[in-house]
């Protein structure tokens, strides 16, 4: 092959790459990014578009603020199959799904547009996943995952447990406790995460509100000075989920009487056991589990 032919081939290949790049839906100043990034509200919307192989997402962009209903737009090099959309909260819980069939327009890049509705999430940050599925045998491909910020979201709620003079005025069973709800602010909403457990217990330690008290709720925990020193989430040899919580000495300071001790243990245990999957709760004081909270 002559040098002239080789040079001509290289020149044509380079020209083809330039033309292909020009056909992509980007403009100066915008970068393509095929990496997954963490949800964040610190990135200016519009900085990054996301491309992964045959699928491009042009709207919304990484870390863009979104609301329901959300319009999703992009392009794909596929000419058959389906594009799927999944919205997840920060705990990876699926909030909504949608899909659209790919329409072959005869061009290299076929546009797609879809609308997805989702309920108010329990966190401000979340994820949008876009992927294609040509055949069941092939499975998922070209997964694009980008962080989003929800314009509207609900603070998660937890239950805390108190005794109640209206539900059991004579305290015939001191282990019976009743729930009230509190809103909490946490970033990790995975089931029985240490953040959720800590938020619930701190609200329990804070005691009943004035409204709670008017409705008969009382707490057996000492009113001041209790600190959570450590929360440990573990599994035993049998695979059971155990939450271990260590408190300072104030938890048992001035505590006397079997009914009060039983009430303290019940309030703490039931507050933690509200989270599905918790099998057992171990309470300790300064690392000790024996000879504590004695009547």
TrEMBL record:
Transmembrane segments: none
Domain GerMN as annotated: residue spans: 197-294
UniProt xrefs under Pfam families: Germane, Gmad2
Protein name: GerMN domain-containing protein
Organism for this UniProt entry: Candidatus Buchananbacteria bacterium RIFCSPHIGHO2_02_FULL_56_16
Highest classification ranks of the organism: Bacteria, Candidatus Buchananiibacteriota
């Amino acid at each position: 092959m002559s040098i002239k032919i080789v040079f001509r081939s290289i020149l044509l290949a380079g020209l083809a790459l330039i033309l292909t790049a020009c056909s992509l839906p980007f403009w100066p100043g915008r970068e393509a990014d095929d990496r997954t990034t963490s949800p964040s509200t610190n990135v200016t919307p519009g900085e990054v578009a996301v491309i992964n192989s045959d699928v491009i997402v042009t709207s919304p962009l990484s870390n863009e603020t979104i609301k329901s209903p959300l319009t999703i737009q992009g392009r794909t090099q596929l000419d058959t199959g389906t594009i799927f959309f999944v919205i997840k909260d920060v705990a990876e819980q699926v909030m909504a799904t949608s899909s659209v069939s790919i329409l072959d327009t005869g061009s290299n890049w076929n546009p797609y547009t879809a609308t997805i509705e989702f309920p108010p999430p329990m966190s401000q940050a979340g994820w949008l996943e876009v992927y294609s599925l040509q055949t069941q045998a092939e499975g998922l491909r070209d997964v694009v995952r980008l962080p989003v910020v929800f314009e509207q979201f609900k603070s998660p709620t937890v239950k805390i447990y108190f005794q109640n003079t209206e539900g059991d005025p004579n305290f015939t069973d001191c282990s019976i406790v009743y729930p009230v709800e509190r809103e909490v602010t946490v970033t990790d909403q995975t089931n029985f995460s240490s953040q959720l457990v800590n938020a619930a217990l701190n609200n329990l330690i804070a005691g009943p509100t004035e409204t709670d008290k008017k409705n008969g709720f009382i707490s057996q925990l000492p009113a001041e000075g209790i600190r959570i020193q450590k929360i440990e989430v573990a599994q035993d040899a049998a695979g059971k989920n155990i939450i271990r919580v260590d408190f300072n000495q104030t938890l048992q300071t001035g505590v006397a009487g079997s009914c009060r001790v039983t009430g303290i243990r019940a309030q703490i245990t039931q507050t933690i056991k509200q989270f599905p999957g918790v099998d057992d709760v171990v309470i300790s004081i300064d690392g000790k589990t024996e000879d504590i909270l004695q009547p």
